[in-house]
C-alpha cells in the first residue's frame, strides 16, 4: 500500500483543481443536457415566431440538444414571460421578445406579474422595420392625406398586439401629435391583426412589417397600403416610401424595435454565454437570413452578452419615457 504525506496529498488535490480550470469549455459547462424551449409570446406566424423557428434549428446544431418553439400568446407577452419565470434559472427556458413585452408590458397593468429586471438579455437578434399600414380601401394614399382625413372628423381604428405594447403607444403618440382621434383595437398577435387589417375590420396598424404584410404592399395587390416608415433607417425595399418623421407634425415620430433572446435573471453566467454563442453563430446562417429578409428584419451583428445587457438597460430607460409621455394609465 502506497502512503502519501500530507504535503503530497495537498499537492495532488491542487493538481486536480488546476487541471479542472483548463478542461475544455464543453466539459466545464455541461449545458444543455435537456432540450431548450424558445417561448414565443404570440400566436404562430408573427415575426417573433418566424425568427424563433429559424433560430431553433441552427442553435440546436450548436448546443447539441433539440430547441423547441412554444407559442404562448396573450396578455401582451405576460403569459409566456410568467412561464419562463416560473421555471428554474437553468437556461432551458428562453424568452423571444422585445421592449413590447418586457419593458412596456409590466407598465401596462396596475398589478404587473413581473418586472423588466426579472430578465437578463442573452443577445440581440435584429431590428424590425416599423411602419404605418392601412387597409387597402382607406381613402388616404400617404401620411399627409391620412392626417388630413382624420382631422376632417373621419373616425379611425388601429390595431396593436395588446394594451401597453409599443404598437399601442405608437398609435396613441400619433393621435397626440396630429390631433387625429383614433380607437385602439387590441389583438393577441400580429397574424390575426394583419388578417383583420386586410379584411377591412380595422383601418390602421402602426408596427412591425411581417411576412404577410410585406408582399401585400409590394406586389400591387391593393389589399394594404404602406403610408410611411417609422424606423429611423429606411431599407432599400422601401426607399421610395417617406419617413413619418418628415411630416411637420410628426418630426420626432421615429422609433426602432429590436428582437432578442432572454433568460430568467440569475441564470449561471456560463449558460448565458453558451446561449449567446449559439445565437450569434445562427445569425450568419442562410436560413435565418432568409427568414429575416421575409420580415424586413435587419439582423444584428454578433455582440457580447455584456453589450446586450447595455442595450436592454438603455431601451428600458427610453421606452419607459415614451410610456410616460402619453400619460398612459393601466
TrEMBL record:
SUPFAM superfamilies: Periplasmic binding protein-like II
Keyword annotations of the record: Plasmid, Receptor
Superkingdom per UniProt: Bacteria
Transferase as UniProt keyword: no
Keyword Repeat: no
InterPro entries per UniProt: BUG (IPR005064), Bug_dom1 (IPR042100), TAT_signal (IPR006311)
PROSITE patterns recorded: TAT
Transmembrane intervals: none
Signal peptide as annotated in the record: none
Pfam families cross-referenced by the UniProt entry: TctC (PF03401)
Assigned protein family: Belongs to the UPF0065 (bug) family.
Protein name stated in the entry: Extra-cytoplasmic solute receptor
Native organism: Cupriavidus taiwanensis
